[in-house]
Amino acid sequence: MSGDGKGDGSEPDGADPGAADLTHTDESGEAQMVDVGDKPDTARRAVARGTIRLRSETVDAVRDNAVDKGDVLATARIGAIQAVKHTWETIPMCHQIPITNVDTDFALGDDGIELTVAVETTGKTGCEMEALEGATTGLNVVWDMVKSAEKDADGDYPETGIESVEVVEKTKRPLE
C-alpha cells in the first residue's frame, strides 16, 4: 500500500484490501494524520446545525434571560467558539487550522433551541469538524446552563435531548 489513501491496490500480503482506502492509517494499520502539505490553500466554509429539545418553560426562561446560571445564549456562544478553536485538540488526526471567522446563530422555538455554527478558514483542509464541534459544544453548554430547570422529580431529563446535528453546508473556492 502506498499510504497515500488512493487505494491503488498495492496492499502488502495479508493486508485488508479495503484498508487501501483508509487515509488515517499507514501500511501497518497504525493511526496517522493525513499529509495535506502539497494541497493548495483555498478559502473554505462549513456550516453545522443542531437542536436541543427543552420544556417550553425553559425556552421561555432562556428567551427572557431568566435562567439562574446567567445568560444562556451568550455562554453557549462562547463555548461554541472555543470548541471551534480547539477542535484539533479533541478530534484525533484533525489538523490545526487557521480559523478566520466563526458565526453562531440561535433560533428559539416553542420547545427547543436550534444552533447554527458557520466556520471559515483559509488553508489546505476543510473546517466541517470545527463547525460540528462548535454546534455540539454550544448545545451542550445550553444543556448545562438549563439542567436544573429541565430535571424531573427523579433527577432525569425526559424532555431534553440534543438531536439532528449535521453539516448543512461545505464550500471551498480558490484564493483570489
From TrEMBL:
Transmembrane segments: none annotated. Residues 33-172 form the Molybdopterin cofactor biosynthesis C (MoaC) domain. Keywords: Lyase, Molybdenum cofactor biosynthesis. Pathway: Cofactor biosynthesis; molybdopterin biosynthesis. The keyword Lyase applies. Substrate binds at residues 93-95, 129-130. Its EC number is 4.6.1.17. One of its GO terms (biological process) is Mo-molybdopterin cofactor biosynthetic process. Belongs to the MoaC family. Catalyzes the conversion of (8S)-3',8-cyclo-7,8-dihydroguanosine 5'-triphosphate to cyclic pyranopterin monophosphate (cPMP). HAMAP family: MoaC_A (MF_01224_A). Homohexamer; trimer of dimers. This is Probable cyclic pyranopterin monophosphate synthase.
